[in-house]
């Protein structure tokens, strides 16, 4: 990849959501915003190799996308309305509405409107705000790309037809809307934490950083919301380990093998502080939610100076709490990984095997099973499980790690 191609890839990653959000604010139409942004990036791909990358690529893209949007509206109207045309060309965008002046946060709340089904909210926001591709989102939801495309198209049409406003909701509406927003930010963060695309970096810091930034903004809006604090703590404690998670050769390094001295002590401290706040609330009788429990699990992991110091019994107890809130197969799988450290791989394998039908297409199920079989000395079965995990894993760093573990089997 040459310098201009690299610049275009970087600018797309950094500016996509900003351009879409700015156009949505001006034109009030998600379809127009997304299509005009896509056309602007296509124009950049054509022109920048010859003319060079402009000094302010984001401004160039926003200006170009605005022109594309105006052209499209003119084509669609096909009527000589000079006043309307003048408004399009010269009117300033309306002033932001809401407690926080952040285009992307308003776009998230637009996409996460209660009129849309939860999974539809998630898919639409990951596309419009996260800039994730349809294949990336389809993998996250374990569904076909065609079905996902239809879902996103219907959601945009519903937002337009219902006149859903582009703004952060008023204070009294926020608590009811925030659960969908947190779910979106968690999925966006997860795609950055373990990128599913075969042609992307194994970790996408742009996505994790943006998810953290937006979660901080929501915490400013809802400082007393335990789940907002829990999600922020969870993200910080995971992000703290980022530099220790990939080797010099691009291989993913599991938690058990990471250099803990390379973790970001400042992020760990902030995450621990938030978890302690939530523990105090729990002691006062406020039951913790899913993100708070996940943050507490990560706090136990990051509290151990050495993997051998990990308090696995506390981690299993926290997973027991989480299973009651979220009895999903993925939570059961993660609990089994902790059980393997506490009660041994055979006990864990019995639990994992019960999840075979539910998680047959999930690479982490096969990777976990492969590791347990390896530890039990069942090399042939472990090899088959590694093969299936490698086949399903989209992350380049994870594939490299799994391949090495498989090839080490005797």
Automatic annotation (TrEMBL):
Gene3D superfamilies in alphabetical order: 1.10.1740.10, Tetratricopeptide repeat domain (1.25.40.10), Winged helix-like DNA-binding domain superfamily/Winged helix DNA-binding domain (1.10.10.10)
Domain spans labelled RNA polymerase sigma factor 70 region 4 type: 108-159
Key word Secreted present: no
Domain RNA polymerase sigma-70 region: 18-78
Keyword Transcription recorded: yes
The DUF6596 domain, residue ranges: 177-277
Protein keywords: Sigma factor, Transcription, Transcription regulation
SUPFAM superfamilies with a match to the protein in the record: Sigma2 domain of RNA polymerase sigma factors, Sigma3 and sigma4 domains of RNA polymerase sigma factors, TPR-like
Family to which the UniProt record says this protein belongs: Belongs to the sigma-70 factor family. ECF subfamily.
Name of the protein: Sigma factor-like helix-turn-helix DNA-binding protein
């Amino acid at each position: 990849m040459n310098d201009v191609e690299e610049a275009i890839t970087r600018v797309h990653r950094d500016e996509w959501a900003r351009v879409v959000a700015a156009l949505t604010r001006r034109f009030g139409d998600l379809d127009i915003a997304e299509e005009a942004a896509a056309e602007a990036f296509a124009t950049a791909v054509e022109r920048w190799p010859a003319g060079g990358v402009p000094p302010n690529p984001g401004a160039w893209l926003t200006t170009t996308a605005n022109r594309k949007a105006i052209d499209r509206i003119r084509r669609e109207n096909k009527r000589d309305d000079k006043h309307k045309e003048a408004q399009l060309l010269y009117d300033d965008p309306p002033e932001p509405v809401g407690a926080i002046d952040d285009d992307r946060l308003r776009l998230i709340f637009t996409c996460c409107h209660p009129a849309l089904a939860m999974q539809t909210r998630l898919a639409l926001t990951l596309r419009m705000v996260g800039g994730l591709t349809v294949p990336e989102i389809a993998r996250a939801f374990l569904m076909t790309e065609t079905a996902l495309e239809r879902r996103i198209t219907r959601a945009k049409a519903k937002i337009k037809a219902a006149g859903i406003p582009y703004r952060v909701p008023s204070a009294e509406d926020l608590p009811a809307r925030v659960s969908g927003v947190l779910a979106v930010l968690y999925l966006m963060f997860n795609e950055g934490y373990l990128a599913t695309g075969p042609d992307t970096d194994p970790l996408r810091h742009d996505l994790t950083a943006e998810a953290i930034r937006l979660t901080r903004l929501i915490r400013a809006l809802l400082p007393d919301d335990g789940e907002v604090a829990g999600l922020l703590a969870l993200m910080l404690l995971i992000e703290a380990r980022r530099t220790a998670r990939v080797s010099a050769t691009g291989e993913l390094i599991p938690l058990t093998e990471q250099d803990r001295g390379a973790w970001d002590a400042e992020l760990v401290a902030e995450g621990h502080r938030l978890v302690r706040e939530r523990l105090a609330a729990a002691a006062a009788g406020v039951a913790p939610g899913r993100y708070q429990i996940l943050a507490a699990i990560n706090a136990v992991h990051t509290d151990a100076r050495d993997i051998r110091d990990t308090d696995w019994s506390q981690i299993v107890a926290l997973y027991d709490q989480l299973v009651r809130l979220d009895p999903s197969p993925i939570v059961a799988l993660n609990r089994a990984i902790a059980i393997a450290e506490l009660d041994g791989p055979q006990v864990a394998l019995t639990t994992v095997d019960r999840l075979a039908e539910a998680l047959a297409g999930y690479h982490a199920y096969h990777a976990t099973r492969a590791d347990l079989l390896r530890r039990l000395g069942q090399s042939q079965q472990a090899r088959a499980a590694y093969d299936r995990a490698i086949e399903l894993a989209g992350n380049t760093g994870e594939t490299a790690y799994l391949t090495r573990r498989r090839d080490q089997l005797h």
